[in-house]
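Let's inspect a concrete specimen:
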Amino acid sequence: MIKHFLLIVGFVLWFGAVSQAQITTPAFEGFAGFSILSSGSEGDEDIDLDREQRWGWQASLAGNLNSAFGLVADFGGQYKHLEIELPGNDDDFFLYNYQFMFGPRISGRGERATGFGHFLIGGAHTGGSGLEGVEFDSATGLAMGIGGGVDINIGSGGTAFRIIQFDWLPMRFKGDWFQDTFRIGIGIVFRGGM
């Protein structure tokens, strides 16, 4: 985990060092976009399950203290729809996972792009719903987001396109760690207070 974070911080610092332009730092940045949550199998090593993808949304709000350091609040929700046929019951089933995390962000700003890395901590809520008369177990637990991304500036205004945000998301539910989870996001960044 520490190795991943240090690699991201190193990339961001290198990215900032190669840019020689004088850049105006926005006071805040808001992000809204599309995300994919990918989870691997957990538990019994004799069971070989494929990765599962859930599709959804992601949003964040970052306040920048200076050109390199800021604080970010990051939220996401991903869903998977399943059609399950049971005797006497043909219902749809929805799996869901929500994340709500906060933490520091380090940014390297260039004339055309901004690279960033962050370490987020907070919570996640996961569960399912949809089958009539069947109770589903849901859980809320600890979640961390260790990752970063790249924003490409659009014109000279306060808008950018986040070409990628990648986060490793270890989560802990009911005493068990689930460490084979990743989230990828893309979308639009709005900047203000420049």
Summary: The chain has one domain: 2-21+52-143+165-192. Residues 43-48 have pLDDT under 50 and may be disordered. The CA atoms of residues 6 and 25 lie 24 Å apart.
